[in-house]
User: What shape does this take?
Amino acid sequence: MGSLFYSTINGVNAEFDSIEFFPKSSSLTVSTKLINCFTPEFEQIILAGQPVRFYYSFQIVNPESKKVAYEKNIYHQIQYFHLDKQFTVYTSENQVVYKTESFERAKEHLTSLEQIDACTLDDIKKHVEYKLKVSAHLEKIFIQSINKEINLMFYWNSIKPEIESSTFTHKIITR
Amino acid sequence: MKIKLPSIRIQFLILVQFLLIFSVLFYRFYFIQNFDRYEETINSLDFEGTLNNVYQNNKEFIPEIQFTDFKQDFENLHRNIKERQFAADSFRNEMELYSIYILTFIIIFVFLFTIFTFKLITGPLERLQSATQKLSKGNLSIQIPESRYSPLNELILSFNSMVNELDQTRSKLIATEKDAVWREMARAMAHEIKNPLTPLQLTSERLEMKYLESHDEALKILPRSLEIIKEEISNLKRLTVEFTKFARLPKAEPEEFKLSECILDIIKSYENDANIQFKTDYPQETIYADKFQLRQVLVNIIQNGIQACDENPEITIYVEEKNKGYISINVTDNGKGIPEKEIPMIFEPYYSKRKKGTGLGLAIVKKIIEQHGGDMSVDSTVNVGSTFCINLPIYKSND
Assistant: This one.
């Protein structure tokens, strides 16, 4: 019956916009943006004041062996405060809290991944080909007032959005 | 353009489906409508505005040490209100979707259940109907397969038992009838043969007696005696021919032909014997029957009519379309008529009032008419005349 309940949820196919990566000092930084990831019901949950986290995962993958050479996980959390009529977005990668009264701006912070340190250049072996893979997911939340658990992934049709960069080597990115 | 209505079964099925769908849709509409009204009422109460007012009016009086908790409590209250709204919207969506699931389930279930029930009830009924039709056509070996789970199984068992009993009774009846027919045939044949035998015996004994007295006396009565013997032998021969005809009446070979032409052709051959009038109220003229056998019927009836008159025989033949698909041929004569009590017997084999009649003519006529799917009757008044009425199906060839 649980799954029957979730069949009432109209989901969207969330996806990442184009991925960009380049070295910055001793790190490999990545920029991308999650798009088409909100539905009116999902927004209603956020606007209710429920804290919602977007989990992002960055993986340096060997395309041949499919082995993950390095992995980094971060999250962005949004919460709305009714009394202040203010959104706060916390980004775990730099531990910064953004405050805004605009929901659009808050969503922008929530979905934008700007120059995230995916790994250090030392993590990338020379003469080995890699791919950078970025994915996102949501977790279940428990709404206490109605005593109900909701798997937020249903708003993304239970599909993790993913994006892969083109193949690169240590030499290419340090050129 | 004629609209063909579906069978009662389909009509009932459609009605049940329609009522169910209608009731679920009505219930769905009623429930959602009420739920929306309730939501509207709740939303109009403006809990959030009230909460904000309470917060704004009291925040200055709260000691700083308790302010964070105070604010958090109000924040939680706001969240609760919003979450309940979200839950209500989710519930509404669920309800809309579930009502579609339920509707689909009910339609499928009712459809299958109705088909199953109909099959259980109307299946045996259809088999019974078909079996009854076969039974009416004379098939007494028919048996309906049992349908154990049907409420009509008892009826099926009773029907099968009834058919078995009917079959046994019919077999007994056929045997009894055959026996009776053979007895009657033997009796009639013996009677008919005995009639010419008496003059044959008397003539031959007289001839023998005269011959023993004197050859000349015997020679005197010889030609007359031989004449009587020949005549009686001829009667016997005719009797056997007619009997063979009755026994071996060939199967009718129907064809389409013009009835009036056939009747006029028969009338021509009796021009010198009687005054025959022909009238018709059947403009279509054609009939589908065995022309030779129908001619035999009409000749027989006309001949009977002429023989029934002592002088100036007058025959009227009148053809009319009676009921739809049937014609009536009425042959009226001005003969002596038939007494009322004799009318039921005239079609029986070997019944004849005429001296030289075999009693098989009208029996053959009746048999031919029955073989064509028709019937015949007689209306007669003594000393006025008789009317033979033949009813025959037209059996148009394009039907």
Observations:
- Residues 144 and 159 of chain B are 8 Å apart (CA to CA).
- Chain B has eight helices and seven strands.
